[in-house]
């Protein structure tokens, strides 16, 4: 039971309607409301990661990459997965072949994105970052998990972050293996992630 991307809509505060149309690079403009209205925040301005959340552009790109399925299946690494790339956990009480509702798929996605945001905040610490750089790292955390971003598993990435070397950080966003073999989908996803980080370009490289 696979669901087309165009049929998905996020619940919660963003109310984002997901479209299957390729995403072009756009600026994300956020704001904080005060008595006089909205003070616009430059999305290219680097600031503390605690001030940022994943953009709608990123969430749409992630859904394009992951797809959406209501039935529990095995991903390319052989792990039980459901919804939008959600790794099935013991507390989910799901087994192979079980199905979930549309609403639960959305709840799992929002929870997983929130966890990925927290992983990035811990990973980069005090490093100032802008929206598209944060987005790329959220996609990385969502895709590979916090354990693979540790100092022991990703020493070059952690050194680049400690040195505030943004070019080197971009170089270390390339994760292309699953189950000890290169997966073509991860090759394209890594390219997309690097383009997001370096140029705020959210488009699918397969279509560029």
TrEMBL record:
Catalyzed reactions: Hydrolysis of (1->4)-beta-linkages between N-acetylmuramic acid and N-acetyl-D-glucosamine residues in a peptidoglycan and between N-acetyl-D-glucosamine residues in chitodextrins
Cited InterPro entries: Bacteriophage_GH24, Endolysin_autolysin, Endolysin_T4_type, Glyco_hydro_24
Enzyme Commission no: 3.2.1.17
Pfam families on file: Phage_lysozyme (PF00959)
EC class name: hydrolase
Presence of the UniProt keyword Transmembrane helix in the record: no
Superkingdom of origin: Bacteria
Keywords: Antimicrobial, Bacteriolytic enzyme, Glycosidase, Hydrolase
HAMAP family, sorted: ENDOLYSIN_T4
Similarity comment: Belongs to the glycosyl hydrolase 24 family.
Protein's name in the database: Lysozyme
Species for this entry: Erythrobacter ani
Lineage: Bacteria, Pseudomonadati, Pseudomonadota, Alphaproteobacteria, Sphingomonadales
């Amino acid at each position: 039971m696979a669901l087309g991307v165009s049929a998905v809509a996020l619940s919660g505060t963003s109310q984002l309607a997901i479209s299957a149309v390729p995403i072009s690079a756009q600026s994300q403009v956020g704001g904080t409301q005060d008595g006089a209205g909205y003070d616009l925040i430059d999305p290219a301005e680097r600031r503390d990661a605690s001030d940022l959340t994943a953009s709608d552009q990123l969430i749409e790109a992630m859904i394009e990459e992951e797809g959406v399925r209501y039935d529990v299946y095995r991903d390319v690494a052989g792990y039980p997965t459901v919804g939008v790339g959600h790794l099935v956990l013991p507390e989910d009480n799901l087994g192979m072949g079980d199905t979930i509702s549309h609403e639960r798929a959305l709840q799992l996605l929002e929870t997983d994105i929130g966890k990925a945001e927290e992983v990035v905040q811990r990973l980069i610490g005090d490093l100032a970052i802008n929206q598209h750089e944060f987005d790329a790292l959220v996609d990385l955390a969502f895709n590979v998990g916090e354990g693979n971003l540790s100092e022991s598993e990703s020493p070059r990435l952690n050194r680049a972050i400690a040195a505030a070397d943004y070019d080197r950080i971009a170089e270390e966003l390339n994760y292309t293996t699953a189950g000890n073999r290169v997966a073509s989908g991860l090759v394209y996803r890594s390219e997309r992630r690097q383009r997001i980080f370096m140029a705020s370009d959210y488009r699918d490289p397969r279509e560029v």
